[in-house]
Amino acid sequence: MKSKVTLRPFRVEEVHLYHQWMTDKNITGQYVRGEASSLSELITDFKKTHWQTQALSRWICEDKSQNIIGVAQAWKFDLYEDHMEVGRVLLPKFRGAGLGTDLMLELFNHVFTKYSTGRIQAITPCDNLVTLRTWEKCGMVVEGRLRYFISVGDKKLDCFVGSILKSEWEAKKN
Q: Who contacts 99 (Cβ-Cβ below 8 Å, separation ≥6)?
């Protein structure tokens, strides 16, 4: 089945969108930590790498009509292993239509295809039932609970960590 979502690299004139989205709690929600870098710092960083390295990649997410629906990112978080972590933010007006699941599936496909990684993981607060359901639909396995792990406002919350292995992804695709 063809995905309803595509990922493409950011263009320099779109960096301000990332900054705008990632500093607006109405867009990121309560669980995503806002962007700490200034817009000028983000543009400088973008011009060095175009945000397309295994250390950190960011993509614009579009629906079939090429509407920008959000942002996805992946980063290498383990110094010694080939693991990647992913995250995504779907713009509010596109939520509730199954696009979050399609976005996550396309993100897995993109990362497993583009990078030499055998494992993708993500974290989410334990009470984020929408994301946990998305993980389930995408074939992610909840591996455990990280206690007192993520800051939300002035609170520390427990999180679940979930993952999907490349072998599981390949079996799911076929």
A: 4, 5, 63, 69, 90
pLDDT digits (tens, 9 = 90+) for 46-102: 999 999 988 999 999 999 999 999 999 999 988 888 899 999 999 999 999 889 999
Contact 5/62 with Cβ under 8 angstroms? yes
The β-bridge partners of 76 are: 84
Tell me the C-alpha distance between 116 and 47, whole Å. Answer: 24
Residue closest to 64 by CA, chosen among 106, 96, 28, 92:
106
d(CA 128, CA 144): 14
Q: How many residues can be counted in the chain?
A: 174
CB-count burial class (<10 Å; 0-12, 13-18, 19+) for 161: middle
Q: How many C-beta atoms lie closer than 10 Å to residue 76's C-beta?
A: 17
